[in-house]
Amino acid sequence: MITATPTPETPLSPLACVVVDDNEMSRLMLEHYVDITEGLELAGAFADGVACLNYFRTGGTADILLLDINMPKLTGLDLVRILPEPLPEVVLVTSHRDYAVDAFELQVADYLVKPLDYARFIRTVDRIRSKRVALPPPAAPDAAPMFNADGNSLFLKINNRLTRVNFDEVLYIEAMSMYSVLVTPKHKHILYATLKTLEEKLPFAHFMRVHRSYMVNTQCIEAVEDNQLQLPGGHTIPVAKAYQESFFRRLRGI
User: Fold this and answer.
1) Residues 209/182/163/208 CA torsion (nearest 10 deg)
2) Residue boundaries of the structural domains of the chain
């Protein structure tokens, strides 16, 4: 068995993988790569996007989704757009290079071109693992309570302590699996709550969802160019197609 490189002093924890590809040979190859890599385990393999969608909608989970793009019934890109949250780390595996722009908009973890060699596969796994081990260990589902402070501040449970966060200073919030990252000019707060949960519960009208992976503080937008939001500190946030109409309607009213 070939071992993926762990982050130093961090033990490998199994990552559940789901493989979706209508080409049987490609699907079997990806299953084989998962099987020979220590720290990965196969949670499911599907020949089309509809079967994969049903898997997730009925409670199935995965850490990594290895996904073909050109498939009957439901393309890989369309599948990513309608998958229930929280999303796994999505790795697109395709024979075509011309979907890179769409992949960028969806903020997938990687974009791999067939024929895929194992070395390229393992580099992707290492990058995903490095990002995940930087997160705090999962807590109980109710471990991210919000307590009102005053004005636009809330007390949030971050790293097992209540931290006062001034949401006027939060530039944007980024989804990261079961976590969300609150980005300010000086800090990044990792909160055990999905972006969907924050979208539903945050009491501040100046935060708006502009992408499946991002909420933005509309008061911090410095410029808009080519559906990209320019924020202080050189931060750039994409506005996904599904959110453009509501965003620009909101922008005209700001």
Assistant:
1) -20
2) 7-133, 146-253
DSSP 6: P
Angstrom CA distances, 126 to 5, 37, 80, 109, 121, stand at: 6, 11, 22, 11, 9
Scan for tokens 């009925």, then name that residue. Answer: 58
Q: For residue 160, give the 3-state DSSP assignment.
A: coil
Tens of pLDDT along 91-149? Answer: 999 988 777 777 777 778 899 999 999 999 999 999 998 877 666 655 544 445 566 66
H or E segment and range at residue 32: helix 24-36
Nearest CA to 20 out of 79, 101, 60 is that of: 79
Task: Please give the CATH topology (third level) of the domain spanning 146-253.
Answer: OB fold (Dihydrolipoamide Acetyltransferase, E2P) (2.40.50)
Pull the structure tokens for residue 181: 């990252």
**CATH topology assigned to domain 7-133:** Rossmann fold (3.40.50)
